Amino acid sequence: MVETPDWKARYRDAIREMEDQERHWRELDRALRRLAGRLCTLSLGMAPTVDVELTKISRQVQDEGTKAAEIEELIKALLHAVTTNDQPRGRWTASCNAVAQLLERLSTGALPDPAMQALAAEIASVDSDESLARLLTRAADLARERGEKLEKERASAAAMLTQVTQRLEDVAGFLSGSKADWKTSQDAALVLNRQVLSEVDGLSKEAVAATDLEPLQALVASRLESISGHVREFRQKQDRLFVEQAQRAEKMTLRVAELERQTRDLSSSLEKERQRARIDVVTGVPNRAAFEERLNEEIERWKRFRTPVSMLVWDIDRFKKINDTYGHRAGDRVLREVATCFANRLRASDFVARIGGEEFCTLLIGTDAEAALRVANELREAVAGLKLLFHGQPVRVTVSCGITTLRDTDTGDGGAIFERADAALYRAKDGGRNLCIAA
To answer: What sections of 306-354 are H helices per DSSP?
Structure first.
């Protein structure tokens, strides 16, 4: 008789083995879930979008009921967030912000530098240490050139001050000489007076003592001749003194005229430099320094007359994409075209300036909020209608705008009105761009 296999025993052994394996896999699954959770926690902080996906995974792996397919989908979402996250930009954000602040300080202030302002506008395109290094090198070159220019101006001013000092010394010498001449003239007059009085007194005494007419006549004639001699000598001295004073006065007049000419030239040169320092080198419209100056003037005028003043803050939509696609020359052309479009459609009393990067600001004088919104939309449509070609391709340029008007609370440096208009601009950008919103 053939012995029947103990299939029941073998089945029980298989069941026990499967239970042991299942227990082992459960322990391994828990360990892997704990490991995944800790790795997600340690990885937080890379980027906001990545942190969201890591948090989702961390929560799901703690739930033992989560299926592998669900975790697989979460991992795919995490990989997408990591690959789409703009790591170069994040890496250079702090450095670029610091460089932007440095360039902003170098390009504004008491002596704004349009070239440095143009360089500051390029910071948005920096995406590597090489481009940042090139930009810093150019900034250093501009700073050196500016230092050399300031040194030349300082030397020129020092030479001018030396000339002024010399002219002032000449004037002081002339005045001192005139005072000495006046003292000499006064002393000569006193001497003449004493001499004449002495002659007259002697003549009086001799006239009283005289007993004969002929000797008295001779004495009188002699005394009168002596007096005439003293007067002639006095007049000769006065004539020489007058000639010397006239020569000195003419010489001083020429020196003062030269000093006045040099002063006018210096004043004209300083005014030209001041005007150039307030013009944006790329667009030809006023820059941020000129804008801040004009804004302060309009605030003070508004306090006195309460004439409405509206502020329009503009931003060129997707300007960085134009720079990246067609190059900085194309970007500069867009800036010029937009600035010209604004300037040609504003009144002489209005004001437009480029305040940095692709941002412009417009002040509408005597214009309330309703009219300002209408003007803003007209300008927006005019920009959208510009016909621009780059590399043979038509490029449509649009702008967004934030609008506000001066209020009783807008005092000081105008920071409140600008922040209000800027906030409205961001709402226009978030609303889809090519839009004007009033605040």
So the answer is: 319-326, 328-344
Burial 410-437 (b: 16+ CB within 10 A, else e): beeebeebbebbbebbeebbeeeebbbb
Q: Which of 156, 119, 158 is nearest to 139 (CA)?
A: 119
pLDDT on residue 256: 76
Q: How many residues does the chain have?
A: 439
Q: Specify the pTM.
A: 0.50
Task: Tell me the C-alpha distance between 28 and 338, whole Å.
Answer: 64
Render the burial of 265-276: b for 16+ CB within 10 Å, e for the rest. eeeeeeeeeeee
DSSP state of 328: H
Structure tokens at 77: 């979402």
Domain extent listing, the chain: 7-85, 91-277, 288-438
Give the closest residue to 313 by CA, choosing from 353, 366, 367: 353
Q: Residue 164: its pLDDT value, please?
A: 65
pLDDT surpasses 90 at 338 = yes
Nearest to 119 by CA among 137, 94, 145, 93: 137
Cα pseudo-dihedral 148, 149, 152, 157, rounded to 10: -140
Both tokens of residue 411? 């005092």
Q: Residues 358, 370, 378, 419: which is the catalytic one?
A: 358
pLDDT at res. 120: 73
For the stretch 344-363, pLDDT in tens is: 999 999 999 999 889 999 99
pLDDT at 2 over 50: no
Whole-angstrom distance, CA of residue 47 vs CA of residue 297: 44
Amino acid letter at 260? E
53 is a catalytic site residue:
no
Q: Measuring CA to CA, how many Å separate 322 from each of 115, 192, 204, 314?
A: 21, 94, 111, 17
Return the CATH number of 288-438, one of 3.30.930.10, 3.30.70.20, 1.20.1640.10, 3.30.70.270.
3.30.70.270
3-state helix, strand, coil in the chain (%, to 5): 75, 10, 20
In angstroms, the CA 62 to CA 35 distance is 10
What pLDDT, on the 0 to 100 scale, is given for residue 89?
A: 45
The angle, 0 to 180 degrees and rounded to 10, between the axes of the packed helices 48-61 and 7-43 is 150
Q: What percent of the chain has pLDDT over 70?
A: 62
Cα distance between the two ends of the chain: 103
Given a cut of 60, whether residue 46 has pLDDT beyond it is no
